[in-house]
Write the structure tokens for this entry.
Amino acid sequence: QQQVKQSPQSLIVQKGGIPIINCAYENTAFDYFPWYQQFPGKGPALLIAIRPDVSEKKEGRFTISFNKSAKQFSLHIMDSQPGDSATYFCAASIETGANNLFFGTGTRLTVIP
Amino acid sequence: NAGVTQTPKFRILKIGQSMTLQCAQDMNHNYMYWYRQDPGMGLKLIYYSVGAGITDKGEVPNGYNVSRSTTEDFPLRLELAAPSQTSVYFCASSSGTSYPYEQYFGPGTRLTVT
């Protein structure tokens, strides 16, 4: 049973476009929502994270939008670049304890020059 | 700092064989995790540890065992390997004490069971 549902599975955009990746969850106890970026042959790396007390968080070209009532959150990449081509995973956890992450199934993003 | 290191990078096992995947971190992190990554499935937590001597099951622990005798090392043991254990395995560590609770991942071990 997938605790965090992620879509789309893959995404192709032109350079400068704004890809959007969506995630949804059911467990209302989740209170920490990170996004990880993974390049081929590498382990994932933390990109940006949000807590449910804010509706948006921006770091550079990356923005998380969070809708607590809908139990949904999304990643937007502004002015996307070929170097952003990677697989993106959303995740969720309960902040206390070991903070075990439940990952989405991933989105493979390709940015065409 | 080397960060999180994993050995081996690749391994092929025959059905029924056993092996240990090694993981070490030099960041003095208390929290360590083992994940498996299957195509189209994301990462699933196998086992985790909140400190030396303390381990607990994650989402998919069957067929695996772990131990944590030191802060630095967190080996994952596969007993009686099965084709369903063909996957890429990632070890991660975290200080766990301050937001954003970043988990630092190793480079992974690609395991094939035939």
